[in-house]
User: Fold this.
Amino acid sequence: MSPARREASTSGSSTEQVVASATTLSAGRIGTIDQLLSAKEIAITCGSGGVGKTTTAAALAVMAAVHHGGRVLVLTVDPAKRLANALGLAAFGNDETEVPLAALAAGAGIRPKGKLVAAMLDTKQSWDDLVRLHAPDATTAQRILANPLYDNITGRFVQSHDYIAMERLYELHSSGRYDLVVVDTPPSRNALDFLDAPARMAEFFGSRLLRWLTMPYRSRLVTFASKPFTQVADRILGSQFLGDIAEFFTLLQSMESGFVTRANEVGRILADRRTTFVVVSTLEASPAHEAAFLIDELGRRSLHLGALVLNKVLPSTLLDPAAQRAAAALDERAEILAAELAPLAGADPAQVGRVLVELARSFHDLRLAAGREAEQRLELGAIPEVTVSVPYLAGDVHDLNGLLAIGSRLWQ
Assistant:
């Protein structure tokens, strides 16, 4: 018995059981991403870096605009330039820019029902806008923006990027201009940072640290008592260094009420029934582990997990029993087949035989890998309402038709 057939006989039954279980699971599921997004106003794609979150978010937005109608916004974070090109835009930034979906009518013969708008998170501009919104007056806002510490603090503040992404989401959703907002969450060392950012921002404004930093500026007594220390610090760190710190945080504290209220509202909108989360992952070990952790955390926080999108998945045809039998026969009869094919290929029969054997065994290895992926899909897909797999693609997405092709797989 050939190695391929011998190993198939020991592993085939378990793989077939996995396929049967996956079929049963799929049959018991009600709903698609199409139905999911038609019932929601916000869809937040999340997961570890490098799994295709940005492309998935853009593809979902394209499909929603094409099929559902209305106005759809996709808010991306640090997208590759090719994504801007795929959306038919030379570039885009914090300001919303309409995507020319009319190109689909010419390229794919599709007439979109709605409009698609794209925006890229600009952290600096968003923080500037937020300061102007929450400052008690224009003078205070200008003093904060002009403070030499402002750019450094807001640029490097822990979870600054995560918080401002959620703040921007709240602003865009509350504007009432869009029927659906699809968000690509920031790349992060921890996929939960964006969920925790609003609460941590509210916590910061009530912290002892902020009171300690602002005390010297607000109290003449403390300023007088600490004058020798501040003089030494000024000589080492530069003139007025501590004064700049105290002034900045005192001005920042003047916006506490607005920031805390808004942060709490951002937290509420994440838990709203109109918001759903789409976890995006590959089936590689590290991203899959992160996806499983994220799925558990969303459940623990009572946040709506609408879908799991698995990218770069091996095709299910590898698990077809007939394909397995064909590969085993190819391995077993390689010598006979090589004698027939060698004249057609203009090659040595022995060389053709080796190629046929290698092809058969490579197919078997891929089939085993596909079986393991099917098991992982069963484990990860047990909780989400919808689980969708997107196979490896021949090339990168470079236009709207490419996004539409990915979207079509997500929609089914």
About this structure: Confidence is low (pLDDT under 50) at residues 1-13, 18-30, 220-226. The longest helix spans residues 349-380.
